[in-house]
Amino acid sequence: MKKRDFLKKSAILASSTAVMPSILLACKTEAKNNPKPPTNTKRLRTAHIGVGNMGAEDLRDIASHQKVDVMALCDVDANNLAAAKKLHPKANTYTDYRVMLNEMALEIDAVIVSTPDHTHAPASLMAMNMDKAVYCQKPLTHYVSEAREMKKIAEERGLVTQMGIQVHSFYDYKLATLLIQSGIIGKVHTVRAWSPKNWGYDGAEPVGQDPVPETLDWNLWLGTSSERPYKENVYHPGNWRKLMDYGCGTLGDMGVHIFDTPYNALALDVPMTIKNECRAPNGFGYPENNVVTYEFPGTAYTADTLKWVWYDGPGAPQLHEDLRLPGAMENSGTKNQDDTGDKDDLKDKISLETKQTEQGQLPEQGAMFIGEKGRLLLPHFMELPKKIVNGEYVDISAEIAEIEKIHNMGKPIRNYASEGPKHYHQFVDACLGTDECTAPFSYASRLTETILLGVIAGRFPNETLHWDSANAKFAEAEANQYLGGDYRTF
Q1: Is cis: bond before 381, omega within 30 of 0?
Q2: Dist. CA 322–CA 239, nearest whole Å
Q3: Which of 161, 87, 195 is nearest to 441 (CA)?
Q4: How far apart are CA 68 and CA 66, in angstroms?
């Protein structure tokens, strides 16, 4: 089934249900840039698609808001569903999100999508066509065409939306954005960002098949993706990120988090050119190491154009003068680089935690802004940004204090357990009419498109691709086939 036909069918399914106006229906008539539900709303009723791993965290943090009622839970894995049901015994449970959305249409106001990447858009768009607010995990979509469609529907219907990049709401990232926009290093001409996480796979596609666990609905896990046999520990529960049909590699995982602040601070749009230095494509897994170079059109905060270099995989980042820190020894890089490849366990790979860095060592993950008046280092995460001029750190405590005062930021709280839910609660409050989302799909779609263009460039190693944003196509025609894909009927 063509993707557009699937989306049309989803819209028909949604409209065919006798959907009375939910508390968010009024959103569809509001201004595109300021969606607001009725202000007399008292509580928010939520449905959750995907409740294992990251989905369990999303469920926990959404439900921690005092004005949320969890009405429905959906997961293709019975073990995940049972664990979530124990926490929310009053919620209805489902294995098929399409059934859930149609049966619960009158009883839910917002949908939280926490599935593998390839199901983000199909599930979200069905909910959005039913006028439901949507919180969708990052990256927003698996295909560029889906990101643009989700942005379009959200704007047309005036829906409250938020992408799941929870560190977007953290103190240090807000501070770095305001420092850059205040001109602390002048106009920025280059950004270098990195993560040594390894969500690639350079091996061969597995052969044969294994029995599907009784607790897993493999057909529903595959969803709109092509049918293939089940192999234990290859796809579910977490390794799908490595694989081209389901995930978006390290760039689509940690890249979204680490791109977010420089992208937001510099008010960037999508890039003009993209080049990925990586191994040749194998048709199954993403490259384990990528160096992606983007060129962006200039903004008020950049030079005439901006160069952006992303490094990922074991050993990242590559040594470069832009990344040399005060006190660094010759040939030193990140002390805590992940050189173990697939030896890391799943918990380490999905963790947002950054190991403690030492003097002269780059943080394990982070970004460096290079501008007219110095550099600004932004570790990932829960560390203050640091300014470097002529090879020495510069005290910016006065500038930080001024920004804290002007923007009423308060002081940083170094506690992920208390800070993590803020991004989720912002979404809930926006649905209840008391706040606005800072990562709506109007923003998230552009950030995701940028990420996905780099992923596509990995199919054309060492070749510069030229992106025509106005017409949503590459100058290199052979690359355009990867902007979207066919949806399987399931």
Answers
A1: yes
A2: 33
A3: 161
A4: 6
**Phi and psi at residue 321, to the nearest 5°:** -60, -35
Which spans in 131-238 are helix H? 144-157, 171-181, 218-222
The pLDDT value recorded for residue 420 is: 85
* 345/53 Cα distance (integer angstroms): 14
Tell me 103's DSSP state: H
Q: Are 3 and 126 in contact (CB under 8 A)?
A: no
Whether the Cβ atoms of residue 363 and residue 354 lie closer than 8 Å to each other: yes
> Quick one: which H or E segment has residue 108?
none
Buried b (16+ CB within 10 A) or exposed e, 137-165: bbbbbbbbbbbbbbbebbbebbbbbbbbb
Read off the pLDDT of residues 20-51 as tens digits, 9 standing for 90 and up. Answer: 334 333 333 333 444 545 444 689 999 999 99
Taking phi over 0 as left and psi of -120 to 50 as alpha, with beta for the rest, 131 belongs to left
Q: Which residue positions in the chain have pLDDT lower than 70?
A: 1-41, 329-358
Question: What residue type is assigned to position 72 of the chain?
Answer: A
Starting at the earlier edge strand, list the strands of the sheet with 92-94: 92-94, 68-74, 44-49, 110-113, 133-137, 161-164
- DSSP label at 343? G
What is the distance between the alpha carbons of residues 108 and 412, in angstroms, rounded to a whole number?
35
Residues 296, 270: Cα–Cα separation, whole Å: 7
Residues in the chain: 490
CA distance 390 to 368: 15
